[in-house]
Amino acid sequence: MKPPDEPPPGLIAGVRAVGREPSPENAGQRWGFGAFLLVEAVFVLTAVFITAVARTSGTDIGTSVAFVLVGSMVPTVLAAAVAVVITRVRGNGPLVDLRLSWNWADVKIGLKLGLLGLGLTYLAALVWSRVVGDQNATSAIGELVDGAALPLAAAIAMFLYVCFVGPICEELIYRGLLWGAIERQGWSQWAAFVLTTLIFAASHLEPLRTSLLIVIALPIGIARLITRRLTASVVAHVVNNFLPGLTLLLVSIGVMPT
Q1: Domain layout of the chain by residue ranges
Q2: Which positions, given as ranges, span the membrane (predicted)?
Q3: Which tens digits make up the pLDDT trace of 27-37?
Q4: From 41's CA, which of 76, 82, 154, 173 has a CA 20 to 30 Å away?
């Protein structure tokens, strides 16, 4: 099975093409919303299990370096791995089903939208912090790192996760698996864009920051929308996470104040 046809080059042309071209075919794809629900269950149950182990052992997950790293990384990575396995067992594999075909034009679009996302995120975060206060505007990972005072190796591992591993895994799950499940129902690409953006924001389980996460997710979803592939959204997500990830690194090793 071939990947979907190339979209017209450029952001404006890509947006104009959405809705006029037929949706990618899903021949051989034998998974849908059930697969996404299974992946989400793996994510939640893994996080609950890690928390339960920490509490049973009497460990404060907010101050233990090991639990900060494991609790932050393992649920998302494991969930993404399950998504990939599902496409291999019940479909055509991740390259086809999750639209992972490589294209340098997609990288350029992802970079542009990622930089746009950085600007939007910065402005939205400024407004949001004024509305809810700086403490309430802090992300869950930010709170964990703030309480843990990570050593250099652990801080670098967290930086790599926030900037690279996390974005790749989340894109596989939401704008890969979930987007593909929505397309398989015959819904429009705009419906896939809206639903994946909202579910992505809500799935972080940070109710106070959900509206901010929606703003963050918009350019990333647009990258997926106009290219029809995951590469652009992965690049946009990585770029959008870079400065926050770098800030976490510098704070956690004591270079910047909390």
Answers
A1: 31-252
A2: 31-54, 66-89, 109-128, 148-166, 187-205, 211-227, 234-256
A3: 778 999 999 99
A4: 154
